[in-house]
């Protein structure tokens, strides 16, 4: 059973058929008594064309999203990186102080 689960095999008992996805094709193994054999390979196109306009938030702000991107961003003169030291935890403190009245509002916003 592990092998069938690993390869996403579909067993159709009343037809005595096992269908196994194989790339863009499907291997069909048909049982005949106790002797199984591969009877056919059927190609299936599982790719769906996904469009940017199908995302609801993109439809709302369509003018912000470019149809074609001009390419990779240009190389900058200054390379920025943060060198991390293994085993060191990040600093755990508030970046700025808040008034006690503002703390509950910050907590609710962070939880949302």
Account of the 3D structure:
The chain has 3 helices and 4 strands. It is an alpha+beta fold and 112 residues long. The chain has a domain at 2-43. The longest helix is centred in the C-terminal third of the chain and has 9 residues, at 103-111. It starts with a helix and ends with a helix.
Give the helices and strands, then pairings.
Layout: H1 2-6, E1 10-12, E2 17-22, E3 25-32, E4 35-43, H2 56-60, H3 103-111
Antiparallel strand pairs: 1-2, 2-3, 3-4
GO molecular function, one term: RNA-directed DNA polymerase activity
Keywords: Nucleotidyltransferase, RNA-directed DNA polymerase, Transferase
Protein name: Putative reverse transcriptase domain-containing protein
């Amino acid at each position: 059973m592990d092998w069938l689960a690993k390869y996403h095999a579909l067993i159709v008992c009343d037809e005595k058929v096992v269908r196994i996805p194989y790339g863009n094709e499907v291997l069909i193994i048909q049982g005949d008594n106790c002797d199984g054999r591969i009877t056919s390979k059927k190609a299936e196109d599982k790719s769906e064309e996904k469009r940017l306009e199908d995302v609801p938030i993109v439809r709302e702000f369509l003018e912000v999203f470019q149809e074609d991107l001009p390419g990779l961003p240009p190389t900058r003169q200054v390379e920025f990186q943060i060198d991390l030291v293994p085993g060191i935890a990040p600093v755990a403190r508030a970046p700025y102080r808040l008034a006690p009245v503002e703390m509950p509002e910050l907590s609710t916003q962070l939880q949302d």
